[in-house]
């Protein structure tokens, strides 16, 4: 079973993505966090195979820093950046960290399904 975390400060996004994973009956144990600081605390206790991470957290730890922490603590974890504010400079910066993919919001349910199937290979 794939251990997945969805980290976004928009609760609607985390709830929707978790629901899509359940509806498609993907073999995943899913944690959601709406605070990047909360997720970093979980990251020190839980091992994840895959993390879907927003870049922008208002008044919280930046997504870039969270991605760095993930790669530091769990180098084999695949990190997908999901953001509506992605440009060439930001994409280049996160690719240097070693993220698996960079995707733009909104992510359609079928795209999420394909992403999880791809990661679970």
Provide keyphrases for this structure.
121 residues; Rossmann fold; 44% helix
Order of helices and strands: EHEHEHEHEH
> How much helix, percentage-wise, in residues?
40-55%
CATH architecture: 3-Layer(aba) Sandwich
How many structurally independent domains?
Answer: 1
Let me know the CATH homologous superfamily.
Answer: Response regulator
Which structural class best describes the helix and strand composition? alpha/beta
Short note summarizing the structure:
The chain is α/β, with parallel strands linked by helices and 121 residues long.
What can you tell me about this protein's structure?
α2 (36-43) runs parallel beside α3. The termini are close together. It is globular, with a radius of gyration of 13 Å. By secondary structure, the protein is an alpha/beta fold. Helices cover 44% and strands 21% of the residues. The protein has a single domain, classed as Response regulator (Rossmann fold, 3-Layer(aba) Sandwich). Strands 2-1-3-4-5 form a 5-stranded parallel β-sheet, with helices on both faces. The chain has helices at 11-23, 36-43, 63-73, 88-97, 109-119; strands at 2-7, 28-33, 50-53, 78-83, 101-104.
Chain-wise SSE layout:
Elements lengths: L1 E6 L3 H13 L4 E6 L2 H8 L6 E4 L9 H11 L4 E6 L4 H10 L3 E4 L4 H11 L2
Parallel strand pairs: 1-2, 1-3, 3-4, 4-5
Helix pairs in contact: 2-3
